[in-house]
């Protein structure tokens, strides 16, 4: 696991139609009505691959931009990868769940002379072909989340591939379209356990109840449908959910109740894999 930093987003936007009196029980708001979120990335290592899933916000935007989120620009994803025991030059693949700035911003850095370069220059960078087109030609609703400086240098580097067109990655992925077009959720098997990297289908453990859908989602009814399908599957198959944005917990498991899926256990990734 690679902790790329923490930031704040508006709690109302994060929970859509759910009243603050309800969502604030699990996600406490600050004086600006914002909740604390993590950029929790995942490092997947095999004998010949070192794959980083998502890269956090990065440091290329202005102080004013980062001020909206209280993002600490000193959270260099390369340093975080080094702390995890891997040289950035050894990262073979970067896999993007999607291209909103808080998921891909760290992949592109300002090089010498201010020219953009890749944080992981030897890595193949994986996106989804439909999502890539969606990001490069954004709709008005998502335009502020798709920043050209985070996206276009990847294509210009020649290191871009589309996982939906075929891949040799050591995991498969679930495609969901409620939050944004063709978000990819890696499904990783390790030590006989299955881990689903939930990304923005389920940003925090507080979002487990089915109606708790973000106001940011382009198709909230689609998200509702996808959550029902995949969370029921997660509970049935004893899959571990890896929570990219939860400020406290890496992972959770689910249980079935009369009201639908609910959190069973909250834990660190280490605890989840040892359980």
Question: Topology of this protein?
Answer:
Elements: E1 2-10, H1 11-15, H2 20-23, E2 34-45, E3 50-53, H3 63-67, H4 77-83, E4 93-95, H5 101-104, E5 108-110, E6 116-118, E7 124-127, H6 129-136, H7 148-156, E8 160-162, E9 172-176, E10 183-190, E11 193-197, H8 220-237, E12 240-242, E13 251-257, E14 260-267, H9 269-274
GO molecular function: hydrolase activity; metal ion binding
Family: Belongs to the metallo-beta-lactamase superfamily.
Protein name: MBL fold metallo-hydrolase
Could you describe the 3D structure shown?
- By secondary structure, the chain is of the alpha/beta class.
- The protein has a single domain, classed as Ribonuclease Z/Hydroxyacylglutathione hydrolase-like (Metallo-beta-lactamase, Chain A, 4-Layer Sandwich).
- The chain is 24% helix and 28% strand.
- It has nine helices and 14 strands.
- It has helices at residues 11-15, 20-23, 63-67, 77-83, 101-104, 129-136, 148-156, 220-237, 269-274, and strands at residues 2-10, 34-45, 50-53, 93-95, 108-110, 116-118, 124-127, 160-162, 172-176, 183-190, 193-197, 240-242, 251-257, 260-267.
- A six-stranded mixed beta sheet has the order 1-2-3-4-7-8. A six-stranded mixed beta sheet has the order 9-10-11-12-13-14. Strands 5-6 form a two-stranded antiparallel ribbon.
- The two termini are 17 Å apart.
- The model has no long low-confidence stretch (mean pLDDT 96).
- GO terms for molecular function: hydrolase activity; metal ion binding.
- Residues 38-245 form the Metallo-beta-lactamase domain.
- Pfam families: Lactamase_B.
- It comes from Fulvitalea axinellae.
- This is MBL fold metallo-hydrolase.
């Amino acid at each position: 696991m690679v902790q790329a930093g923490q930031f704040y987003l508006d709690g109302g936007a994060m929970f859509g139609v759910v009243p603050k009196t309800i969502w604030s029980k699990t996600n406490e708001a600050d004086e600006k009505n914002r909740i604390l979120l993590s950029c929790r990335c995942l490092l997947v290592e095999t004998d010949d691959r070192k794959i980083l899933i998502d890269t956090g916000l990065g440091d290329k935007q202005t102080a004013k931009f980062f001020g909206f989120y209280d993002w600490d620009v000193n959270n260099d994803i390369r340093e975080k990868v080094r702390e995890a025991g891997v040289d950035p030059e050894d990262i073979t693949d970067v896999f993007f769940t999607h291209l909103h700035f808080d998921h891909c911003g760290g992949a592109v850095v300002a090089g010498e002379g201010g020219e953009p370069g890749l944080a992981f220059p030897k890595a193949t960078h994986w996106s989804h072909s439909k999502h890539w087109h969606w990001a490069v030609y954004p709709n008005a609703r998502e335009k502020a989340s798709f920043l050209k400086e985070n996206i276009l240098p990847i294509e210009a580097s020649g290191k871009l591939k589309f996982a939906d067109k075929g891949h040799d990655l050591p995991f498969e992925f679930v495609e969901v379209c409620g939050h944004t077009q063709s978000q990819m959720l890696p499904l990783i098997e390790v030590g006989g356990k299955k881990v689903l990297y939930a990304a923005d289908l389920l940003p925090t453990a507080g979002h487990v109840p089915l109606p708790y859908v973000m106001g940011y989602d382009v198709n909230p009814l689609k998200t509702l449908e996808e959550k029902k399908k995949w969370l029921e599957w997660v509970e049935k198959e004893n899959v571990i959910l890896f929570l990219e944005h939860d400020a406290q917990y890496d992972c959770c498991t689910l249980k079935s109740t009369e009201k639908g899926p609910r959190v069973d256990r909250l834990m660190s990734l280490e605890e989840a894999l040892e359980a």
